[in-house]
Design brief:
By secondary structure, the protein is mainly beta. It is built from one helix and ten strands.
Length: 122
């Protein structure tokens, strides 16, 4: 029988060196899907990434905590229950400069790949 659904019980844990937890539930690393990626993330206090200009739209929903975005030079802070869409080819930096973890979901269209992020050197 060919099921019309797939329950993800073992997401791909992306290796990181900055203390951030990344669990990709659907996407290139998990099931080879290049159209969309869905990841659950927990960013520790004081975490940040280099500036980047991704080739994908990114949607973020904050489950708990706060997350800082610098989007084309503008600082935006999202809190629990808020969400944002950042259009592809926009220069952005993601950070959690706050004193508590930030848990969130990230959805990328098309799917996230490191090559498509175009991260800058720190």
């Amino acid at each position: 029988m060919n099921k019309k659904y797939h329950i993800q019980k073992s997401p791909f844990i992306v290796p990181t060196t900055d203390g951030k937890l990344i669990e990709e539930h659907f996407g290139k690393a998990t099931d080879g899907n290049s159209k969309i990626s869905i990841a659950h993330m927990i960013a520790p206090p004081g975490w940040s990434e280099p500036f980047q200009t991704p080739e994908f739209d990114e949607y973020t929903y904050i489950i708990r905590g706060k997350k800082q975005f610098i989007i084309a030079g503008e600082k935006v802070i999202l809190e629990q229950g808020q969400s944002i869409k950042i259009e592809k080819n926009t220069r952005i930096q993601y950070a959690n400069p706050f004193d508590q973890e930030c848990e969130y979901l990230a959805i990328c269209l098309p799917a996230f790949t490191m090559e498509a992020t175009h991260r800058e050197d720190k």
